[in-house]
Amino acid sequence: MAHGDITHIDIPVGDVQAASQFYGTLFGWQIAEIPGFESYPMWSAPNGISGGGLAPRSEGFTAPRSYVEVDSIDAVLARVAELGGEVRAPRTPIDDTSWWASFVDPDGNEIGLVEGTTGGGAA
User: Fold this and answer.
1) Domains within the chain, CATH numbers bracketed
2) Mean pLDDT by 10 residues, the chain (123 residues)
């Protein structure tokens, strides 16, 4: 994927098993845990392109979050502040070759960022 592409969508859930059954049945998504991401099943849409994860719901994560592929999280987060947004989560490792972060835009929308490549899954 290229800089600016939406690459992943996390859906916060309270019961991973129930959510996997619900979304798999409703949309025909293929949902599976992959090594290194246990308790965080990845979903893949029938088009083989769209995908994301069913992430545990938490106090700060209650709405779906789209992730945008970027060349440099650090550069994008610097621009976010310049443009009136706010960093929500700083650059954080996913694995040895990929990182994520998130920001809130001036309208209050949280958007995730991803840099690098993960070892597998729908991301």
Assistant:
1) 7-59 (3.10.180.10), 64-117 (3.10.180.10)
2) 86 94 93 87 88 92 93 96 96 95 93 83 42
Query: What are φ and ψ of residue 21, in 5° steps?
Result: -65, -45
* Token code pair at residue 17: 């098993």
Query: What is the amino acid identity at position 48?
Result: G
Q: What is the pLDDT of residue 50?
A: 85
Sequence-distant (6+) residues with CB within 8 A of 115 are 69, 70, 71, 72, 73, 91, 98, 99, 100
The per-residue pLDDT for 122 is 42
Alpha helix (H) residue ranges in 5-116: 16-27, 73-82
CA 111/CA 67 separation, integer angstroms: 6
